[in-house]
Amino acid sequence: MNEDELDLLFHAMASQPRRAILDVVRQHPGCNLNFVAEHFSFSRIGVMKHIDVLEAAGLVVSERIGRERMLYFNAVPLQQVHEDWTDQYSRFWAGRLTDLKRIIEKGRR
Fold first, then answer.
1. In Å, how far are 9, 40, 44, 58, 81 from 6, measured between CA atoms?
2. Fewest CB atoms within 10 Å of the CB: 28, 54, 81, 107?
3. What pLDDT score was predicted for residue 95?
4. Phi/psi at 74 (5° precision)
């Protein structure tokens, strides 16, 4: 994931309404814009703009069926960020635990 994609992802996730929209889409795969808009007090156009931001970040994937736009949650960008960042920390802590184990074992001798 490049820096521009990361910026889009964090920009999308920085908004509480977008996170709430993402929850609705995640809980109701294949829902349409009208269904999502029913869950919010702001306008359908406002919901559509938030969905466009989520889609640009890759968090929502849409499929056109006739005049409807079916929406699906895509966890892949979040999973990539999680793996990229936690792998680095996992390696760090695995090394520290190995050092700690070695120190403890030396103390027993």
1. 5, 27, 27, 10, 8
2. 107
3. 86
4. -120, 110
Residue 78 burial by Cβ neighbours in a 10 Å radius (0-12, 13-18, 19+): middle
Read off the amino acid at residue 107. Answer: G
H/E element holding 101?
helix 76-108
Residues in the chain: 109
Structure pTM?
0.79
pLDDT at 50: 97
For residue 39 the two structure tokens come to: 């869950």
Residue listed under structure tokens 């994931």: 1
* Residue 78, both tokens: 């979040």
Q: Where are the alpha helices (DSSP H) in 14-75?
A: 16-27, 33-37, 44-56
| Torsion angles phi and psi, residue 67, rounded to 5 | -95, -5
